Automatic annotation (TrEMBL):
Family: Belongs to the CobB/CobQ family. GatD subfamily.
Subunit structure, as described in the record: Forms a heterodimer with MurT.
GO molecular function annotations of the record: carbon-nitrogen ligase activity on lipid II; glutaminase activity
Keyword Hydrolase among UniProt keywords: yes
Active site, UniProt feature: C123, H220
Region (Disordered): 1-24
Keyword Hydrolase part of the UniProt annotation: yes
Functional description taken from the UniProt entry: The lipid II isoglutaminyl synthase complex catalyzes the formation of alpha-D-isoglutamine in the cell wall lipid II stem peptide. The GatD subunit catalyzes the hydrolysis of glutamine to glutamate and ammonia. The resulting ammonia molecule is channeled to the active site of MurT.
Name this polypeptide is given: Lipid II isoglutaminyl synthase (glutamine-hydrolyzing) subunit GatD
Pathway the protein takes part in: Cell wall biogenesis; peptidoglycan biosynthesis
Biased composition (Low complexity): 1-10
Sorted UniProt keywords: Cell shape, Cell wall biogenesis/degradation, Glutamine amidotransferase, Hydrolase, Ligase, Peptidoglycan synthesis
Gene name of the record: gatD
GO BP annotations listed: cell wall organization; cobalamin biosynthetic process; peptidoglycan biosynthetic process; regulation of cell shape
Species this chain originates from: Actinomyces howellii
Amino acid sequence: MSGMSSVSGVSGAGGSAHEGLWEHRTEGPARGRLRVLQLYPRDMNIYGDWGNTLVLVRRAQWHGYDVELVSYDPGDELPGDVHLVVGGGGQDSGQSRIKDDLLARAAELSAWASDGVPMLVICGLYQLFGHRFATGTGTVIPGIGVIDAETVAGPGRLIGNITLDTDDLGRVVGYENHSGLTTLGPGARPFGRVLSGDGNNGTDSTEGGRVHHLIGTYLHGSLLPKNPVVADWLLARAVEHSGGRWDPAPIDDTWADRARAVAMSRPR
């Protein structure tokens, strides 16, 4: 039951588009409707992170749910009644461009997280959802403190394929490329324990951070195409937050499984 609309912003069969909003409808009767918000796609969207949004939209359709996809950049009006938030990584310059706006939205985003809105924030946004990020030039970019974590710039980059063992989502694979070294505080638990790779800081075997239904992580690749279990976990929490019932359809994830196997077999 795959939907047919495009997620490029150009309306296709079963979908409509206008500025800042895309609608994607499943074929046949929908089991529910989700509103997905992508944060700062103009500045925080590198290393394939847009692919996470594409996967969430498409898998929601395959499971039988209509999706309204909205985006938010500095200066926009923050949409309300959001069921799932996703954001990507960016260079230090991108983080600097959004930092003031993000701080202005801190109370709303924190309230959403506390209320159980599922969120996936990658790399740069993961860092800024923590307390602060100290750059290599000595500049401190304040974060919004949703995740109990702090990041400082390291002397080099942590780059390569990475595999995690998670408590409830099995093995997770991805690709890390970051110079920030993140340390979790007691108010956050790691996304996973590093089996192969460097993770948050290369020393304590943690990767990412979780609080409420929020996942922060350094895993690019993009993350969700190779980890459909994570995508479906986010969608299930989104459906529940919308007041609906998660009723997934069977999906053939053969290609995702093959991609995972290749990623885990490749050297860093």
